[in-house]
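Hi again,

Forgot to attach this to my earlier email, sorry! This is the prediction with flavin-adenine dinucleotide bound. I've pasted everything inline since the attachment limit keeps bouncing my files.
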Amino acid sequence: MQSFTVRSPGHCLRRQCCGLKVSRRASPPVLQVRHNSSTSSSPPKKRTWLRLTVVSLGAAGLGAYFRTHQDAQNSQLNPLSFAHYRLVSRDPVSSTNSIFTLEPSSPANNQETYELAWQTGIWSVMFKQPQLQIGRDYTPLPPLDEGVEEGGHEIPDSLRFLIRRDPHGEVSRYLHSLQVGANIEIRGPQVECEISPEVNNVLFIAGGTGIAPALQAIHVLLRKPAGEEKPKIHILWANRKREDCLGGKSDTLADKSAKSTWWPFGNRDKAGPATAPEPTSSSSTEQGAIVRELQKLKAQYPGQITVDYFVDEESSFISPKEITTFTESAQPSTAEKRMIIVSGPEGFINYMAGNKVWAHGYQLQGTVGGVIQQLGLKDWTIWKL
Ligand SMILES: Cc1cc2nc3c(=O)[nH]c(=O)nc-3n(C[C@H](O)[C@H](O)[C@H](O)COP(=O)(O)OP(=O)(O)OC[C@H]3O[C@@H](n4cnc5c(N)ncnc54)[C@H](O)[C@@H]3O)c2cc1C
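C-alpha cells for the complex follow:
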C-alpha cells in the first residue's frame, strides 16, 4: 500500500490520515457547511447544536466517501502494490489445472492498464500468499469475447488464469484451496517479453501451463485490423497427461511424434513409443477448456495458427525435428521478425533453450543452450519465459 500512496496524487492524504484527508479532498463540502452555518441567524445554543450535527453528518459522509475511494484504489491494478481482487470462479480443466477468474473487489478502472499490457507483449501478475508473505507470477489468459458475441455483457475488469496445482507448491496449493468469493491480492502488470508488431513468424514451445503465454501472443499479434499482414504462429504444446489437453489434435504431425523428452528426471525415453499406452482420447470428441480456446482462435484467424500436441504419458515428446520443420518453412527474414518463445517449467526451458541466469537480483535470459542451440538456427530471436 505504501508504494501506491507514493504514486497516487492523493498519497499525502493517506499518509497523514484523516485530518489532512478532510481538509484537502473534501474541503468543499466542509467549507460549504461551515459557511452556511456561520451565516445562520438562529440563536447561539441552537446554532452550536446544529453545527455539531452538521459537522458529524459531514464527517460520517466524508468517512464513507474516503472508504469507498480507498477501496477503489485498492483494486486498482498497479506494479507497485497489491490490489484486491475476488475469486469469481475456479473451473477445473484437469485433475491438476484450473482456470481462475478474478475481478476487482471494488470498482476500479483497470481496462486501460490491461490494454497497455496487451499491446506490449507477454505479461504476468504476481499473486500474494498472505500467510507466508510470498508471491508467484501467473499469466493472464486473453479475455473471452463470448459475452459480446452472444449479445451478453463482458465481465468488466476480470482476469483469467490457468493455474497448475503443484502438490508441494506453496502458492499454487494455497490458490487451489480458496473458496469462490475469496480475496486475492495481485500486483502488476509485469511485462515478460515485448513482441514487436513487425514479427511475422512465431514458434511457441510450451510446456504445461506455459500455453498461457502462447494464448497471449496470439491475442497480441492477431488482433491487428483487417488488411494488415498477420504473422504465422505455430505452437508445440507438451503436457504430462492427456487430461491436460483433452481432445487436442495436432495440425501438422502425421502421427505421434518424438524420440526425446524434455523431462530431465525420468527414463521415459527408454520406454519409447512402442510401449506407449494408446491416447486415451483420440477417438473422443470431448475437448478440454484450453483446447477449446485454441480451436476457437484457429477458427477466428484461419490459416494463422497451428498447434501440435505432445503428451508424456503417451510417450510423444517434442523433438528437434518439430522445431526445424517450422523454422525451415518460414520465409527468410531478420531476427527481429522471427521469434522462438519457450515457456513452461524450469526443466523444460533448460532442456529446450538452456538456463536462465540470476545476476544482481535479476533473472536474465542467459545464453541459448539446449536443443535450440544444437540446431544452430540463424536469424531467430530466442526468448525464454
Ligand atoms: C513469468 C511467469 C509466469 C508464470 N505463469 C504461470 C501460469 O500462468 N500458471 C501456472 O500454473 N504457473 C505459472 N508460473 C509458475 C508459478 O509462478 C509458480 O512457480 C508455480 O505455481 C509454483 O509455485 P508454488 O509456490 O506453488 O511452488 P513452490 O513452493 O515455489 O515450489 C516449486 C517446486 O519446488 C519444490 N520445492 C519447494 N520447496 C522445496 C524444497 N525445500 N526441497 C525440494 N523441493 C522443493 C516443490 O515441490 C515444487 O515442485 C509462472 C512463472 C513465471 C516466472
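Confidence is low (pLDDT under 50) at residues 1-44, 147-153, 256-260, 262-283. The longest strand covers residues 183-194.

That should be everything now.

G.
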